[in-house]
Automatic annotation (TrEMBL):
This is LysR family transcriptional regulator. CDD domains: PBP2_LTTR_substrate (cd05466). Pfam families: HTH_1, LysR_substrate. It comes from the Bacteria. Transmembrane segments: none annotated. Residues 12-69 form the HTH lysR-type domain. The keyword Transcription regulation applies. Keywords: DNA-binding, Transcription, Transcription regulation. Belongs to the LysR transcriptional regulatory family.
């Protein structure tokens, strides 16, 4: 029998990875300790020891709790994949026949349905034993549906998630941009102003109240101007109306970009800066292992150009 090469030496072990992932999910050492069934001092010591061994700070200590640093976020993302892979390996060894688990999934933003269905087709092959189904009827109210047990997993942008009974993890971020016809008077502008948004019709998809509140806060600060908004259910309809010069489309950049090749539409941003929108995945704790496997798989299907985590 040939000699087996020893595995590479690492500075962290599985326990360290579990602590880091729990801290990223819980936000405080106290809540992470409850998740791990450890004491708070033990979790604090484990974090300090991991940071010392790596020579890098993994979390910033803020009044809002622990926030992953860039190094910490990279470790959390990689640790999630490793722990999922280890769990899958153990499961295959212990129980070769994988039991079927059904996950009911929804997106808070309609535009994500351009990406998610094709992603789910690919994911079904990489997630044996997990059956994924879209519950689009809960698009407008995903969090109440999660709490009520009518959903298992939701991809969220701005909705507030209660800590009790639900887990959340950062998935990616996108940018909200403004699209106008190439013939529109604003097309020659380098950037748009708040006044431009006040004086022109805004074209967008149906959005939940939390999404609208996020947009108003990011675009106008404390101002609450009365805007002319027309909501259309299909991206193609929004862009057709935009091509006709009838308003400014408000879309995610990754949705708008494929429609710019003809040159009849142009993208604009606000002079005050980009509107970055965070996406998170939230799930009921009862489906924990299956949801974490789905999270890891979704990270590999994120559309190009989006910032992960």
């Amino acid at each position: 029998m040939e000699d087996i090469a020893p595995p590479p030496a690492t500075r962290l072990d599985v326990r360290d990875l579990r602590v880091v992932v729990a801290l990223a999910s819980a936000g405080t050492t106290a809540r992470a300790a409850a998740l791990l069934h450890l004491t708070q001092p033990a979790v604090s010591r484990a974090l300090l020891a991991a940071e010392e061994r790596l020579g890098a700070r993994l979390f910033d200590r803020t009044p809002r709790g622990l926030l992953p640093t860039p190094a910490g976020q990279e470790l959390v993302t990689g640790a999630t994949r490793l722990l999922v892979a280890l769990g899958d390996l153990e499961h295959r060894v212990r129980a070769p026949v994988t039991p079927s688990v059904r996950l009911r999934l929804v997106c808070e933003c309609y535009t994500a349905y351009h990406w998610l269905p094709s992603a789910l087709v690919a994911l079904r092959k990489s997630l044996p034993g997990i059956h994924l189904s879209l519950s689009v009827e809960h698009t407008q109210t995903p969090v109440p549906a999660l709490v009520a047990g009518e959903l298992d997993v939701a991809l969220l942008t701005t909705a507030q998630v209660p800590r009790t009974g639900l887990e959340t993890r950062a998935l990616f971020s996108d940018e909200i941009v403004f699209v106008v016809a190439a013939s529109h008077p604003l097309a020659s502008r380098k950037t748009l102003t708040r006044e431009d948004l006040r004086t022109h019709t805004l074209l967008t998809s149906p959005t939940p109240p939390a999404e609208s509140q996020w947009f108003m806060a990011r675009a106008f600060g404390r101002e609450r101007p009365r805007l002319r908004v027309e909501r259309l259910p299909l991206t193609e309809a929004i862009l057709d109306v935009t091509r006709a010069g009838m308003g400014i489309a408000v879309l995610s950049e990754w949705i708008a970009t494929p429609h710019l090749a003809k040159g009849d539409l142009v993208v604009k941003r606000l002079a005050s800066g980009p509107l970055r929108r965070p996406w998170r995945m939230a799930w009921r704790r009862e489906v924990g292992d299956a949801a974490v496997r789905l999270l890891s798989a979704l990270e590999a299907t994120v559309p190009r150009g989006l910032a992960v985590g």
